[in-house]
Design goal:
Elements (H helix, E strand, L loop, with lengths): L8 H11 L15 H10 L1 H29 L4 H15 L3 H16 L5 H26 L3 H9 L4 H31 L11 H12 L2 H34 L2
Helix pairs in contact: 2-10, 3-4, 3-6, 3-9, 4-6, 5-6, 6-8, 7-8, 8-10, 9-10
C-alpha cells in the first residue's frame, strides 16, 4: 500500500492562514485604516518638528556665512582663493549628503579623537552641504549685477570693497532671497537623512512611534503631511515675497 506523502510544514501554515477568518488569501491580516492613530500621532511628533526647524535654521545660518565667503572666492581674481572655492563646491555638490553625514559623525571623530554629538553633526552637515549651493547663489547674484555699477562706484572714489558692500551687495541680496528660500525647503527635507545618526528629528520620531504601535501607514502618512505643511508654508511665503519684489521693480 502506497504511503501518503506528508505535506511540508510551510504548506500547512499557508493552508491554515488561507482559511483563517479575517485574513486574505495570501495569509496577511486585512488592513484597516485608523484615522484616530493619526490624531494621536500628530502631538507626539511636535518635538521632532521643533528639532527639524532648529537644525534647518542653524544649518542655513552657518551655511549662508560659508556660502557667502565661498561665493566671493568664486569670483575672486586670486587664483588660490578661486581654486579652494571651486574645489569645495565641486566636492560637496558631487557627493551625497548622507555620505557627508556619515563621514562627519563616524569618520571625522576617529581622526580628531573626539565624539561629535548627533545634533551638532547634523547642523554641521546641513551647513557644509547648503554652503556649497548657497555659494553658487551668491556668485550668480553678484555676477548678474551690471558691471557698470562697479565702475560707477569706483568713479566716485569708493574702493572695490566699499563698492561691493554699499552698491553691489544690496542689489544682489534681493536677487538671492527667492533661491535662498528654495534652499531652505531643500535643507528642511534633507534633515530627514539625519535619522542614520540617531538625531531625534521628525523622521526619527516617526520611527520610534511605529516601533510602539506598529501602525506604519498612518504614522508615515502623518509625517509626510507634517513635512508638506512646513514646505507649503515656506513656498507661500516665498510667493508673497516675489510678488512684492516684482511690484517694487515694476514701479
Amino acid at each position: 500500500m502506497a504511503r501518503a506523502i506528508p505535506m511540508p510544514f510551510f504548506m500547512h501554515r499557508h493552508a491554515d492562514a488561507t482559511h483563517s477568518p479575517g485574513r486574505t488569501t495570501r495569509g496577511f491580516m486585512a488592513f484597516q485604516f485608523k484615522p484616530e492613530v493619526m490624531l494621536d500621532t500628530a502631538p507626539l511628533l511636535w518635538d521632532g518638528i521643533e528639532l527639524t526647524i532648529i537644525i534647518t535654521v542653524l544649518g542655513l545660518v552657518f551655511g549662508f556665512i560659508i556660502g557667502t565667503l565661498v561665493g566671493l572666492g568664486r569670483i575672486s581674481r586670486n587664483r588660490l582663493c578661486n581654486a579652494v572655492a571651486v574645489s569645495y563646491v565641486e566636492a560637496i555638490r558631487g557627493t551625497p549628503l548622507i555620505v557627508q553625514v556619515m563621514f562627519l559623525y563616524f569618520g571625522l571623530p576617529l581622526v580628531l579623537g573626539i565624539r561629535i554629538p548627533p545634533v551638532t553633526a547634523g547642523v554641521v552637515a546641513i551647513a557644509v552641504n547648503s554652503g556649497a549651493y548657497i555659494a553658487e547663489i551668491v556668485r550668480g547674484s553678484i555676477q548678474s549685477i551690471n558691471t557698470g555699477q562697479m565702475e560707477a562706484g569706483r568713479s566716485i572714489g569708493l574702493t572695490h570693497l566699499q563698492t561691493m558692500l554699499y552698491i553691489i551687495w544690496p542689489q544682489a541680496f534681493k536677487r538671492m532671497i527667492p533661491p535662498l528660500g528654495n534652499q531652505f525647503i531643500i535643507s528642511l527635507k534633507d534633515t530627514s537623512l539625519l535619522v542614520v545618526i540617531g538625531v531625534g528629528e521628525l523622521t526619527r520620531q516617526g520611527q520610534e512611534i511605529i516601533a510602539v504601535n506598529f501602525r506604519a501607514f498612518e504614522v508615515w502618512l502623518t509625517v509626510a503631511i507634517m513635512y508638506l505643511c512646513m514646505t507649503l508654508t515656506l513656498s507661500q511665503v516665498l510667493r508673497m515675497y516675489e510678488r512684492k519684489l516684482n511690484a517694487r521693480t515694476s514701479r
